[in-house]
Amino acid sequence: MSSLSSVQQSPSGSRLSRVLSVIVGVLGVGMVITGVSVYAYTSHQLSAQGITVAAVSSDDPGPLAGRPVAGPFTALAQANAINHHMLALTDGKTFGELGNVATSDGKTYRADVAADKSTDGQSHQAGDTLSAADAKTYAARATAQTGSFLQASLLVSVVAFGVSALIIGLGLMFLIVAIALVGANRPSRRRV
To answer: What is the CA radius of gyration of the chain?
Structure first.
């Protein structure tokens, strides 16, 4: 003897489950749309800059050299190429490691400089022409500063790509949860 019996949810529980599944589903769709929009916008903005990934070196240019910077991998490759070239031009020193030469125009000292503060080990008076060593340090510091700004900008775009991918992933998870809630909302029939 078999009979069919069905398990029924209370009307208020069923209604709440439906409302919850709709809310979670709408949030999921909104997150996916937002994530895709941010990814596309960031890619468009990078492409509009007309940047091409520079070769790291002539012996080993890197797999993305010559490609336009339009995505997270090309942006990261360009940031790495900038870092390589910047360190080559600054004798391996970063912006923070280079001395701050007391000049505002790159040609003359703006203040008196003691011998222990000068790159060349000589003391200088305000208004004196920069020594060759201090001029080289000043130029290297300017190069390192520009390189640091460019790297930071590219790395911010890499983070934007990552965050947009995270938002897309979370949106897809919300959609899966919404589908599961819809499935759980359906009354099930079983044989007893």
So the answer is: 30
φ/ψ (deg, to 5) at 179: -65, -40
- Name the pTM for this structure: 0.75
- Cβ atoms of 38 and 163 within 8 Å: the answer is yes
In the structure encoding, which two tokens stand for residue 192, read together? Answer: 């007893």
Listed in sequence order, the residues at least 6 apart from 109 whose beta carbon sits closer than 8 Å to its beta carbon are: 101, 102, 103, 124, 125, 126, 127, 128, 130, 134
- In b/e form, how buried is each residue of 19-51, taking b as 16+ CB within 10 angstroms? eebeebbebbeebbeebeebbeebbeebeeeeb
Per-residue pLDDT reduced to its tens digit, 135-167: 888 888 889 999 999 999 999 999 999 999 999
- The continuous run of DSSP H or E covering 18 comes out as helix 11-48
- The strand pairing partners of 108, in sequence order, are 129
Q: What residue ranges do the domains of the chain occupy?
A: 4-191
Q: Which helix (H) or strand (E) holds 132?
A: helix 132-185
Phi, psi torsion values for 174, nearest 5 degrees: -60, -40
Residue 25 to residues 13, 60, 165, 180: CA-CA distances in angstroms? 18, 48, 18, 10
d(CA 72, CA 69): 8
